[in-house]
Amino acid sequence: MDLITKVKNRERLTQEEGEALYMLDLATLGELADEIRVEKFGKKSYFNINRHINPTNVCADVCKFCAYSATRKNPNQYTMSHEDILKIVKNSVAKGAKEMHIVSAHNPNDGVEWYMGAFRKIKEQFPEVHIKSMTAAEIDFLSRHYGLSYDEVIEQMIDNGVDSMPGGGAEIFDDEVREYLCKGKVTSQQWLDIHELWHSKGKQSNATMLFGHVESRANRIDHMIRLRNLQEKTGGFNAFIPLVYQKENNYLKNCNYPSGQEVLKTYAIARIILENIPHLKAYWATSTINLALIAQEYGADDLDGTIEKESIQSAAGAKSSNGMELNLFIDMIKSSGFIPVERDSLYNELVVHK
Length: 354
Ligand code: V47
Description:
The chain is α/β, with parallel strands linked by helices. It has 15 helices and 10 strands.
């Protein structure tokens, strides 16, 4: 059977078949991915009103691609107090934010309680807010640094009010590339084990893939297939988020920076291979808003949110530091021919903007 027929029949593709998808032309891939998107969500495009908070840039790990953590290139260290964090949450909730996306560097100085106390205080004061926090890399770091099991860290997260886990820290699962990018950080298998454990508690999470640096197309397909396998077991992933590598102010140079076509192909292929993860997120902070809007025709049904303040990707050159104005976001989705749907963090529909 030929590859296109296999995709149309929703058959499970092998590594080699996944790689072969890249040889199809962009228009064909777009049509195949769009068929899956339309079958799942029609012309709806999801977004939420959220706030990104990055409470510290002090990091015990060194990832070549990171421009956010305090290093020789970025010597300005900061760590927020709980009061600083609560002030941000209060302001954002007043502006309509329903989700706090909280991701930190791996801060070895302030203890587990600095992390957990922040969650607990947010939940006490703003019980309606959804806390999406702690990447698998952060959980692994706390486990290593403070001698806790993954289960102990996760139980503390749940007890203190974390609702779902973001997809960060996945980078690229290939062990050789991973060792080059971020030696010493959570391994691929540990990243997958942590999400499996989180899902076993009845909780949901996202999964990312950082691409457009030194990885090959085969590495991307391998990454997607490992996620597909875990999703078959747990069903706990809500969204897959391909993150386009940003190249400023860091230590990762001489990369295969992807063209817009390569980015769109990667979204479309992700939609095809990860048919069992409901949502495909075109995270506009890394793809640019223009490409994210086009990605809606290549399988993406989610554009993340208004973000309000973004520090990780913008440190590396992305034009995302001030987030996205809500009405402009809605207008752009509408005028690109899609139906903007405000969702909550677990994809319940809140407002359909017809
Ligand atoms: O894991 C770091 C990435 C991630 C760079 O779950 C970079 O809804 C591009 O995980 N260029 C953190 N990316 C962000 C993240 C995320 C973002 C939006 C939504 C969700 C979600 C999760 O940022 C890290 C890393 O892969 N990153 N440096 C860079 N130079």
